[in-house]
Amino acid sequence: MASDCLFCRIARKEIPSKVVHEDDHSIAFDDINPKAPVHVLIIPRKHVSTIDDVAPEDTQVLGHLVQVARTIARSRGIADSGYRLVFNCRADAGQEVFHIHLHLVGGRKMSWPPG
Ligand code: 5GP
Ligand code: ZN
């Protein structure tokens, strides 16, 4: 937990968000500035700054985030059409919030490679 971290504060409900899923280990909410018709952020409740800071004992939660993403994709109706899961790590990837978050993006055709 980090008292001044935006996503820790969202997880603690100190800052409002559109929560789409929560459980003991994770919380998922709509991105405030969606890049596609579906854009959900799935985060661990535990504060970890970047994917590069994930400790060996925390790797299990990453699989959990993917399972949550799958469930949300299904409920939002994009499981069959497809979607993208993204972790941005540090400056070159454009990471803006330093609490790891899995982007679930879908509902439109996307290009590859990303910009
Ligand atoms: P990053 O660039 O760090 O991978 O992604 C950060 C994401 O968090 C961005 O897509 C941005 O729109 C989203 N975001 C930033 N601040 C807030 C906020 O206060 N609430 C919500 N719901 N999303 C936010
Ligand atoms: Zn945090």
Walk me through what this model shows.
This protein is α+β, with helices and mostly antiparallel strands. The protein has a single domain (6-106), classed as HIT family, subunit A (2-Layer Sandwich), CATH 3.30.428. Helix content is 23%, strand content 22%. It contains three helices and five strands. The protein has helices at residues 6-11, 59-75, 90-93, and strands at 19-22, 26-30, 38-44, 83-86, 102-106. It has a five-stranded antiparallel beta sheet, with helices on one face. The longest helix is centred in the middle third of the chain and has 17 residues, at 59-75. The termini are far apart. Bound molecules: guanosine-5'-monophosphate (5GP) and zinc ion.
